[in-house]
Every structure is written in structure tokens, then in C-alpha cells.
Specification:
binds zinc ion; two-stranded antiparallel ribbon; disordered N terminus; mainly alpha; globular; 7% strand; 12 helices
Length: 304
Amino acid sequence: MQNKKRSDSYSNLRIKDDFDCNAYIGKVKWSPAKSIWITTMFSIAVIGSILTFSIEAVLVLLISTAITLCFGHSLGMHRRLIHQSYQCPKWLEYVFVHLGVLVGLAGPRGMMLTHDMRDWAQRQTQCHDYFGHQQSMLIDGFWQLHCDIELESPPIFIPENSFSEDKVYYWMEKIGMWQQLPWAILLFFIGGVSWVIWGICVRVVVSVIGHWLIGYFAHNKGHKSWYVEGASIQGYNIKFASLITMGESWHNNHHAFPGSARLGIEKGQYDPGWWVLKTLEKMQLVWDIRLPEDLPVRNELVKY
Ligand SMILES: [Zn+2]
Ligand SMILES: [Zn+2]
């Protein structure tokens, strides 16, 4: 199949491709850093959570997971840093993105790169199973949690100058997962070892494995309202996960309107990230919120 390139106006500007690039020929390779990180956290979480279980510790897990997923991953990394779907003061963006790093997936540049490459690949007429979560759960789980893909002819990733010249993001990327340390120390002084295990290790494991699971289902099973013509991979809406993912599981909507700050766009689609964003807007901490109707019209978008 011809690997036709899409040059529609909404395409991510950080990925530069040409006709020599392709999204399907490549090798999935074991990533020591990724694999050792999640295996270590997983081992500590499993053993530690049994030894230090308490209702208090579970509350620490729930509260810290909700804060990092909502303010960090969804509002900070995804809706602001990657898609710039709303405006906010720079200090608030830094706080949100730092909370997003705490989720345990990657630093700001790593998150942008992984997201944009997957986005680009899924929009091609053909892409590697790694990008589309097209293998069995067992293989996909191993790939996404322990490996990276190396394309034979990849496109180039060029972040905007405002990001690449930003010293705060430079250090956030460099320090990476060590950003968990001050929070671990704080949790230790307040609640002891148990709070560190539940507030850091169990939280990271739940978030990283949860992120993969949602990614797997959001590209394989669920409801579709929109079809993106020419794209090899379509997104699916997963209703039951809308609250726990802070609205991120409305992935069919996201494939249709990547630049929209609101993910649950239809009636009855719960989107906690959106509710928080509207509250922040009322507090005048957030403005210029973009919605589907503010985005350029996409000719390849078909409503079911
Ligand atoms: Zn997707
Ligand atoms: Zn996105």
C-alpha cells in the first residue's frame, strides 16, 4: 500500500516528514531505561503495598493519582503542552507539566515526542502495529511498557522554539523521574514508608499500566462517532473509563478534534478535565479555550 502523506492544516507541526519517511517499517527494541523503571516500581509496589496496606495509604494513592492525572497528565501535558488548546500563565503551565512528569511516563520532551510520533503514524495510510496497538494485549503490553520503536525512515521531530529554548523544560527533562524524590521525602515525613510506597510506587504503576490499557482499548474497541478518512488507525470512545481518565478516554473525539480542550464533546460525555478547566477559567487562570468549532474544517472527517 502506498504510504500517502497527509498535509491537512491540523497536522502536528512538530513532525516534519517527506515522501521517503514511512510509519510501518521498523523494529521494536527493548528499552532498558523504560523497562527497568517500570519493573522496579512494579516490584516495590506489589511487595510494599501488601506489607504497608492501610485505608489511609489507599486514600493517599487515590488523591495523588487524581491530582497528577487531572492537572498533570490531562490538563498539563496533553491539553496544554502538546495541543496548546488553552492559554494560562507560564508558572501554572510549569506546575501542571511537573505534575504530569510525576505520572511516571516521561519528561515533557519525551511525552511530546511519543505523542506526536504516534499521532503522525496513526494518520498515515499504513503504520506499524506498535503505533496502533494492533497486536495482542500480551505483546502490546510488553512493547509499550518495556520497548521503543525504531523506524527505518522516521520523520524529524522539531519542537517549537518557545519549548526547546525553555530552561525550565530543559531541566525538567534532564531531571526526569528524580522529580519524584522531593515528593517521596515529603510523604515519608508525613506518613512514613507506607505513604511513599502508595503515593509514589503504587501510583506510578497504576498510572503507567492504566495509560497503556486505555491506549490499547482506545484504538481497538469502543464507540465511534467520527471516522478520519485516510488514517490507518481510528480512535474509540470508552465510556466507562471517562471519569477515571479525567475525560481522556473520549479518544474517538480526540482523533476527530485533536486541538479541542474539551474531550467529552457530546451530551452525557463526562469530562472531569474539562470541568476543572472551566473552573480555572472562572478563576481567570485560564483563557482562550479552543473547542471543535474553533478548529479548521477537516475534509477527511466523516460523522457516523
Ligand atoms: Zn490515538
Ligand atoms: Zn493528543
